[in-house]
């Protein structure tokens, strides 16, 4: 599966604001196949572990608190060039800088509460998919 999957989360803010359906629609229309999906409330420990790479960043505490503040939708998506194409679909980290029509432009409320996560490399996509899903939960 390496090279053609990415991992995403619909973050607590977008879930709370009722955007799950609209965001999944963007994902489908963008040509991504959903190969795994779950609705889950991360503990602060799990959110902290997932974002451990950002431990030294000033916003780490805020990020972990937000990501464990309510349920998320976690999913593995398959498509040629999945990582790059999904980053294009979701737009820049800061919604103020995101292109028109992107998921973050449409549904994010701030740089911290930016609607969705998208893996930044093929290597991280695999690590992140395996963090949330076992082999029997992925249907490539
Ligand atoms: P991404 O790959 O586009 O998600 O961006 P990064 O890897 O740089 O950051 C990971 C996540 O940390 C982002 O999606 C935001 O939720 C959060 N984040 C990044 N920069 C900031 C910031 O300046 N302030 C806050 N509160 N959160 C941030």
Describe the structure.
The protein has helices at 12-16, 20-29, 44-50, 60-67, 82-90, 103-107, 122-132; strands at residues 5-10, 33-40, 72-78, 116-118. The protein has 140 residues and is α+β, with helices and mostly antiparallel strands. The protein has one domain (5-134): Alpha-Beta Plaits (2-Layer Sandwich). It has a 4-stranded antiparallel β-sheet with strand order 2-3-1-4. Helix 3 packs across helix 4. The radius of gyration is 14 Å and the shape is globular. The chain starts with a strand and ends in an 8-residue tail after the last helix. The model has no long low-confidence stretch (mean pLDDT 97). Guanosine-5'-diphosphate is lined by residues 54, 59, 62-63, 93, 111-112, 114, 117, 120.
Structural class: alpha+beta
Shape: globular
Question: Any idea what the CATH superfamily is called?
Answer: Nucleoside diphosphate kinase-like domain
Strand content: 15-25%
The separation of the N and C termini measures 7 Å
Describe the main β-sheet briefly: 4 strands, antiparallel
Task: Give the % helix.
Answer: 25-40%
Number of strands: 4
Tell me, rounded to a whole number, the average pLDDT: 97
The arrangement of helices and strands along the chain is: EHHEHHEHHEH
| The CATH architecture | 2-Layer Sandwich
Assign the CATH topology.
Alpha-Beta Plaits
Q: Rg from C-alpha positions? A: 14 Å
Number of continuous helical runs: 7
């Amino acid at each position: 599966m390496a090279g053609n999957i990415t991992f995403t989360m619909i973050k607590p803010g977008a879930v709370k604001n009722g955007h799950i359906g609209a965001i999944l629609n963007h994902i489908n229309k963008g040509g991504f196949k959903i190969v795994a999906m779950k609705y889950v409330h991360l503990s602060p420990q799990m959110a902290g572990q997932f974002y451990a790479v950002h431990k030294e960043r000033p916003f780490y505490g805020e990020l972990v608190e937000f990501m464990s503040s309510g349920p998320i939708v976690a999913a593995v998506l398959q498509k040629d060039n999945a990582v790059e194409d999904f980053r294009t679909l979701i737009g820049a980290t800061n919604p103020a800088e995101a292109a028109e029509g992107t998921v973050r432009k449409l549904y994010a409320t701030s740089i911290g509460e930016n609607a969705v996560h998208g893996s930044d490399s093929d290597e991280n996509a695999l690590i992140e998919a395996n963090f949330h899903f076992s082999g029997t939960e992925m249907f490539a």
